[in-house]
Amino acid sequence: MQFLIDFILHIDQHIINLVNYFGDWTYLLLFLVIFIETGIVIMPFLPGDSLLFAAAAISANPQYHLNIFIFIILFLIASIVGDSLNFFLGEKVGNRLTQQKFIGKFIKQEQLDKAKAFFDKYGILAIFIARFMPIIRTFAPFIAASSGYNYQKFIKYNITACFVWVFLCCGGGYFFGNIPFVQEHFSAVVLGIILVTCLPAIIALFRNKKA
Length: 211
Description:
11 helices, mainly alpha, elongated, 211 residues
């Protein structure tokens, strides 16, 4: 867990280390991180928004010889296919997954109940909104499927959300990530990104507790 926190807070340096060590294989490694974060329901804690931002920022620096368009294509595929896998898992196993002793350590019924409440409240918009909210975006396809939601409707809104998510995060990193102030305070920027993306869930939780 300590390594994961350090990886997220200093994600730019860790990606640079990957580039220096693995070269072009970095594309595949980052693709797998986004695919797993999106598609494997027990891995909601992996970096998403911050990884896209950092990867795009590094690709804007010619020193590292990374192509922003390759990142955009790979991240789009990872998020869309990952969500489809997540939906398939929810359709096949649904809430039974939490009853498994090992899986239950990672997925709590309480987490699924919160995600279901979020989906019930916002309906179709939940598919779009959840893409921009860490942790919830991992559970949303699973909950949608276990609730009997139609895959054709799901994928239509999901593809739109993935396009907007990838272009916003990568565009922000590519055009703003190499500004000296951002580079000097990259960890603070990453925390800011995490806070902004989690803000809707925090507000909703606060309102529910207040109610």
